[in-house]
Amino acid sequence: MPEGHTVHRIARQLALDVVGRPLAVSSPQGRFADGAARLDGRTMTAASAVGKQLLCPFDSGEVLRVHLGLYGAWDFHGDVSPLVDGDRARGSLGAPRVRRAVRMGEDESERTAGDGLAWPPPPVGAVRVRLATDAFVADLRGPSACEVLTPDEAAAVRDRLGPDPVDRAGDLDAAGREVVDRVTARGVPVGQLLMDQAVVAGIGNIYRAELLFRARLDPWTPGRRVPAEVVRALWDDWAGLLADGIRDGVMLTREDLDADGRAAALRDRDLRHWVYGRTGLPCRVCGTPVVVEDMAARKLYRCPTCQV
DNA sequence: ACATTATGAACAC
DNA sequence: TGTTCCTAATGTG
Fold first, then answer.
1. Which of A15, A144, A191, A239 is deepest in the core (most CB within 10 A)?
2. Residue A289 is a catalytic residue
């Protein structure tokens, strides 16, 4: 349930605690036994996210590709380095390295493991892959894709994706023009195009609904009828929301909250969004009940009054 | 105990 | 457009 921000956070965690260290790779569940055997004992040389794709090259030249699908998640155990601003904690010498268990999937959850627990922790449930160093364990469960690719195959995966604002951070302007071109060339509803990973990478059902509300745009508007400057504003807004999501580990899409409201919304999912999941509840702006409809087999939430 | 649901996407017609 | 796959949490009886 991971939209793009989750996968970027996972890539950063792996970069901190896995990359550069020889790994024991296994498949406790057994469904990735062959791939695990190929990677076992090797070293991951990088971990990167493009959209919702996680791509991890190894020193053997092979690339591990993981896609979490609807409900995949990684659990991290042991010396889990803190992510600050979605990246390495800075400053403090020897920031506390508490042994922790962190789940990065739907919502992020964390608990501090007590001392004296078994190490390594026994796999719980259906663990497709376990990546283990002496001090850190990463367990992957429920992915829709987990496979070993050649570098060419990995490049082909990236080539099929539209721009990701993080991946194209140095080139936001050109990337934005690409998105404008891809949206305005088509008669498909803009709500469907925002979810199309070949148009723009990393947006899922929550960010889709929220971006369109924030733009006060009717999701059913054909792409070619959306003015270029409106598409461009959607792209810029996506870049900002993604950066926030990577920093916070939470999808918080309301810009109307003060500091206290933000803090409350970070804790309570019912406060995080304008329209997503709020069927029948009053629009936070105009009070009209939020509607849900099917769009290309996914649920689309919108305010029929604000979004025109 | 069982059914339902989910932040996704590939595939078959 | 509908079916299928992967897993676990939540809701219902």
1. A191
2. no
